[in-house]
Amino acid sequence: MSYSAEISRTHPALFGFLIDESYSMEEEMDGAGGQTLSQICADYLNAFFNTLLLRNIDGESIKNRFEIFAIGYGGSNETRSALPSVNVSDMPINLEKLQKISISEKREKKIIKKEPDGAGGIIEREDTVSVEQPKWIEATHNGNTPMGLAFREALQITENWVSSHSESFPPIIINITDGMYNDEDPEPIAENLKMLSTADGEVLVFNIHITHNAGTNSVLFPDDSYLDNVPDETSELLYRMSSYLTENMIKYALSRDKQISQSAKGFAYNADFSSFVDFLDIGTRPAQD
Amino acid sequence: MNNTEYISKIKKFSMSKIGEEDNENKDSMDFNKFNGAFCISDGVSGASFSRDWSKLIVSNFIENPFETNDVELSSWLGPIQKKWFDLVPWEKLQEMGGGYYEKAQDGASATFLGGHILEIEKQIILKLWAIGDSNLFVIRDWMYVDSFPIDDFEEFGIDPDMLFSMSKSIDDKITCMKGTMIFKEFNLKKNDILIAASDSISEWFLKNKENPSDQPWIELCGINSVDEFRNWVEDKVKCKNMKNDDSTLLVVEI
Fold it and tell me: For the segment B84-116, what is each residue's pLDDT rounded down to a tens digit?
């Protein structure tokens, strides 16, 4: 149980995202220029996917070292694929597929093209080109918060995946929500999810809690002392559902000058912009290098 | 000088990290038996066209090794950067979309260890230039003598010094490299052994050199075929004695 398996095309890693698309995600985040919680969530996940693709591009090809699933939950207690043109039954998808299904917004943009000058310097010239801004997740907010159902979908996908990837780095499942579930209790399902494992460790379940008053009493990667003064029932539930960070994740966080306990959990409360980015970086990076 | 009779044996091996294809090996290495020049360059795995960049560095150095100790790198690298730029299929990458063009525009990076073995007035001299963490070890009478440029395994990090295929701005200055090129000269003797290796093997070597029962040079000198090299690397990685990385080894016996 070392969470140190090499990530390669033969032994890819899995990232799963559960995205709250309930009505309350329509709220605007304070200090975010009028952006809703769902928009912020979509923007950061799109940026994360794009960065993941860029990191795995090698010349004219892409290394399929990761697989992805993303499930939205909301409406009349229903789940749906949060990725365009992919059914939940076809998830997870590899990076090549992720790249193909992006909804690219093409627009003319002035860029600086670089070229060596032959003497160790660089020539930069401005050019107008058609560039693509890839996008996968659309901001959606409607209806209830069927978090239990979303975890049930994640359990099924992950169960199938680990059975065919027994040597891989264990899956990392990240749930992003602004509130309490209103279907079945997701905690027992999350516990079942965490009991799934590969030879390298158990499945990791992390939770990001976001609200309109982001940054107020925000907490990033707390340890069990968090339960001594937990602000509400939702955060207590999400904390309990979260896995402990791996040793390498803690090392990476410390190398980024983050104050973090050796028994920190993958949980964020009232996450603001910077903690959202840090969460995705630290919570997935040891599986990226 | 085109006479390398003072070199009695050369062995060279290179393989990609376990789990990757042979053509994904970003390390390059070669020895020019006509002039005694050799070079190892380790292309950074996260960049596009790193393999091409490390190959160009190696081929250019061993064809025309440096003639002075204090090299003006930008004038040497400039034409090589142009060659790299010319072999990247820019138009195709732009048509492909999906970030391929932008990734290539970031350029490739690679370490550099260049050596030149010369006979001057019956003395065999080894001149070495290095930037980054590809390393060379000198063995005399089956004992470890010296190491260059790194002599402590704790100096191996994830961000070594590099040569860039596209010069970058560092501290508001456009530069073709991160770090500083360093030079060293050794007087060699008959039967000396030179072991040059990329970072994973070098780190393992330095971790083990202090243990009298684990003289790492004996293990490395005992490797005689590609299969033996592959088995040796796979064994070390499996036992977690060495990190899984592209691995390159050059052994030269004087």
Answer: 999 999 989 988 887 898 899 999 999 999 999
List of E strands, chain A: 13-20, 57-58, 61-62, 66-74, 78-81, 93-94, 105-116, 122-133, 172-177, 197-198, 201-202, 204-209, 219-220, 267-269
Helix (H, G, I), strand (E, B) or coil at B70: coil
ipTM metric: 0.76
- Note the pLDDT tens digit of each residue in A202-220: 999 999 998 887 777 788 8
In which residue are the tokens 């060659």 written? B83
pLDDT tens digits for A135-153?
A: 999 988 889 999 999 999 9
Q: Which of A122, A168, A288 to mutate to test the interface with B (most CBs of B within 10 A)?
A: A122
Closest A-chain CA to B177: A120
Q: How many CB atoms lie within 10 A of CB A30?
A: 12
With both helix axes pointing from N to C terminus, report the angle between B50-63 and B73-87 in degrees, rounded to the nearest 10.
130
Chain B residues with CB inside 8 Å of A53's CB?
Answer: 98-99
DSSP state letter for A138: P
In A, which residues are within 8 Å of B244 by CB distance? 6
Q: pTM of the entire structure?
A: 0.83
Q: Which two tokens stand for residue A118?
A: 């032959």
Q: Is B179 exposed, middle or buried (0-12, 13-18, 19+ CB in 10 A)?
A: middle
Give A1's pLDDT tier (boundaries 50, 70, 90). Answer: low
- SS3 for A6? coil
Please report the pLDDT score of residue B1 as a whole number: 46
Q: Is the peptide bond before A12 cis (omega within 30 degrees of 0)?
A: no
**Cβ of B19 and A114 within 8 Å?**
no
CB atoms closer than 10 angstroms to residue A118 = 16
Q: Are A268 and A220 in contact (CB under 8 A)?
A: yes
Q: How far is CA B53 from the centre of its chain?
A: 12
Contact A99 B98 (CB under 8 A): yes
Query: Coil, strand, or helix at residue B101?
Result: helix
Burial of A64 (0-12, 13-18, 19+ CB in 10 A): middle
* pLDDT computed for residue A98 by the predictor: 95
The residue-averaged pLDDT of A12-23 equals 94
